[in-house]
Amino acid sequence: MVRPRSNTPVIGVLGFVLLLVFLYTSTRNGSQASEKIGTHPGQSDASHIDPIIDLSRLIPTTRRVAGLWGYNVFDNLYISEGSYIAVSDDLENTPDHKEVVGPGEVTFSRIGTAEAEDDLGTVVGRLSGTTFIFNDPPGPGFSLLHNSNFLTELFTGGWKALSLAPPHSLHINGSKSAFNEPGVELNTLQTGNLPDLPSRWMFPKCGEDATWNDGDSKNVRFLASVAPGATFEERNVLKLLSLAGQTVMLDRAVIVDRKAAHAARGLADQWGKMNAVIAPMPARLDFMDPVRENVIAGLQAYIAPVDKPVVVYVDNQGEHRKLAKGDHETLIEALHTLTDVAEVHVSQLKQMDPKTRLELLSRASIILSVHDEKLIQAMWMPATTFSSVIEIFDEGGFAPDWYVFSTLLGHYYYPIHNDHVFEKPEKRVTTPGFDAGSIRVDGHFVAALIRDIIVNPAGGGSR
What's the pTM value of the predicted model, to 2 decimals? Predict the structure, then answer.
């Protein structure tokens, strides 16, 4: 089971910071014999820096180490007076505020190292590990309350950005990451280390009166299973730190902000999905493994060995949007002809408990369904050289939701109109039969497509 590299103590961020600051300042005022911050006897590696930073002696500088508009990963990001602050003398390579956060109460600003002590104070508390910040507002008008949007756009997009980052570095007084030298484009990194699980989840615009958690508590249960022991921090933390006049530095911060992603225009505007910004960025195929492994362990699920590629047809016939009855039956018959090359399942996912769904989808290589929210389950399917999502639409119709999500996860994507894979239009198209119960599909064509994907895994779909 993968666990967070480190966790904030149970007393929480505020208690953690204020206690250490009190102890440090008391010691500093009472004795001048303390070690220089950033070193321990016999050690010079800056990664061993103490949990209190004295900016008069050492200034860790802020670097954006991965990401792009709306999905940013920073090393050494400061929080002071309720705002995010980047400390760097390389301001040209530090993103502008509109790339990081949208308009609102929590801002992002940049200052140079010469200003750091005056603006932030001399003593700064260090929060080790990764802090995952969801910077969206709460409430039904935004996506935090919708579990599907929370997982597909906010969490998974931010996780992909985190997977592109190199190991954390303190970048003392302007030193640079090896992945961030001049001439190396941040957004072209195709490999990286699997990320450490977060030490804390932060919702700076949410609180008890305006929550980020959905009505069924799926959001909080998911995050708790991803990083057992990680703390949850809300708006009151920033408010109390501000009242205490205390600055903290986050070793590594992932900031996910919907308005900033949409400010990039381009694909986010075209598809109306914030995760379209980061979906095409190349990443390791296994970047979701730490998430998947911890959820599997938390549910005590058993993932049976796979002898053949596993094909899952999501039977949606009990729902409003479904295949024509005869086409559904023909499709099942055609899928059964694949048993020489595949293990085939016809599954009503809605009727399964979470553990059973996870045990099935974690073995899958191909998922087939009409356009439906159940395709969110593709996040449990491991990305491979031929893992694929096949989505069936009413003739002429198209919605980009699961195309974007499949691309984000690293799966190939095949949109089907009856008897062919069609070229995706440049926008969402709703037809009179889009939500009907008589969507047509040629089951024999679909079975032949699946056979070709398995036997000739060259990747003919979109990724």
Answer: 0.86
